[in-house]
hydroxymethylglutaryl-CoA lyase (Eremomyces bilateralis CBS 781.70), 346 residues
Amino acid sequence: RSFASIATPSSDDHVEIIEVGARDGLQNEKQAIPLETKIKLIERLAQTGLKTIEVGSFVSPKWTPQMANSSEILQHVLETPPQSPHPISYQFLVPNQRGFDNFLSTYSRLGYVSKSSNSEETAGYVANDKRLPSAIGTVDVSLFTAATESFTQKNTNCSISESLDRFRPIVTAAKALGLPVRAYISVALGCPYEGPVAPQNVSELAINLLEMGADEISVADTTGMGTPTTTRTLLKTLKAAGIEMPDIALHFHDTYGQALPNALVSLEYGVRKFDAAVAGLGGCPYSPGATGNVSSEDLVYMMESLGARTGVDLGALSEVGDWISHEVGRRNESRAGKALLAKRKK
Ligand SMILES: CC(C)(COP(=O)([O-])OP(=O)([O-])OC[C@H]1O[C@@H](n2cnc3c(N)ncnc32)[C@H](O)[C@@H]1OP(=O)([O-])[O-])[C@@H](O)C(=O)NCCC(=O)NCCSC(=O)C[C@@](C)(O)CC(=O)[O-]
C-alpha cells in the first residue's frame, strides 16, 4: 500500500512496536544493572500495551557481561508473568548451541520441556504438555548474524556461513519445541568495518534464514548509516527477491538522526513491524560510535500521528522512558517522551 493511505486509519493499519530496550538498550551499559531494575523495566513495559518485548540474551558473559542474568529473567517471566493488557511475546537472543542449551535448561527446569535421549534433532529435549501462563503469548528465540564477514567475526567470532551452520539445528529444535524463531541481520545498511553493504547480500541472507524456518527477519541498521534513499533501495531489493513484508521487521538506530525518516519510507513499502527502545536506549558494542535505537516513544508518536494504531499508551511509555533513563544515569533520548512529560507537568 502507498504511504498516503496510511494517513487514513483502517482496520489493517496496525503497526507493531517490538520493544528491545531491556536487551539491546541495556547490553552496552558499563555499570552492572541490577536484576530487579531489569525486571521492573520489563514489568512496566508490559503494562503499556506493547505486545512483544525482547528481554534477554544467552550470549557469552565474557563477551557481553550485562546480559549474564538472562536465565533469571526467563525464569522470572515464566514464574511471575508481568501483568499486561494482553498476552506478550518475550524474546531472547541466542548466538549458538551453547546459548540455546542454557535457554532450554531454564525452560526445562520449569517443566516446559524435558530431556530425552531419543531426541537429538530437538537438542535433546521434548516438549511437555505444560502450557505457558495466559499472560504470555510466546517465548521466542532470536538468532543473529550480519550482512558482512567483518561484523560477523567481531560480533560472534565466526563467518556468516558458520553462523548459518550454527543456526540450522537450533531452528529445527526450536520449531519442534514450539518456540517461534526470529533472526537478525545486522549492518544491513552499512558496516562499521566494510562501509556500504550490497542490498543483494541482505536479501540472500534473509532468504536463507526464511528457508531455514525463521518466522521473522529483523533487518538491522546497526550503525544508523541508513538513509531514506538506501532504505528504499534495500526494501526494493528485498521485495524483488520475493520477500514478503509481513516477514520482516526493521530495526533502526538513530546515530545520524535518520531513524524516523527511514521508518516512514519503510511504511511506504508495507513494513508494519519496527524494533525500538524506550528512551532511545542502546548502542552496539561492536559498532563503534553507534548510538541508541530509535526511541519507542518517538516511533509511537509518529505512527499514531499518521493514523496507524500501535496499541501503546504513549503517556505510560514516556514515564517508563523517563524512569529507566534516571535508573541507568543516561539522558532520555526520546524527544516525544520528554515533550509529553513536560507538557503534563505544566
Ligand atoms: C557467539 C559467542 C558465544 C562465540 O564466542 P567464542 O569465544 O568464539 O565461543 P567458543 O565456542 O570458543 O567458547 C568459548 C567459551 O565461551 C563459552 N560459551 C560459548 N558460547 C556461550 C554462550 N552462548 N553462553 C555462555 N557461554 C558460552 C564456552 O563454553 C567456552 O567456555 P570455556 O570453555 O572457555 O569456559 C560470542 O561471540 C558471543 O557471545 N557473542 C555475542 C556478542 C553480543 O552479545 N553482541 C551483541 C548482540 S547482537 C546485537 O546487538 C545486534 C542486534 C541484534 O541488536 C541488531 C543490530 O542492531 O545489529
Residues 160-176 form the longest helix (17 residues). The beta strands are 16-19, 52-57, 88-93, 113-115, 125-127, 136-146, 181-186, 216-221, 248-252, 273-276. DSSP finds twelve helices and ten strands in the chain. The chain has a mean pLDDT of 94.
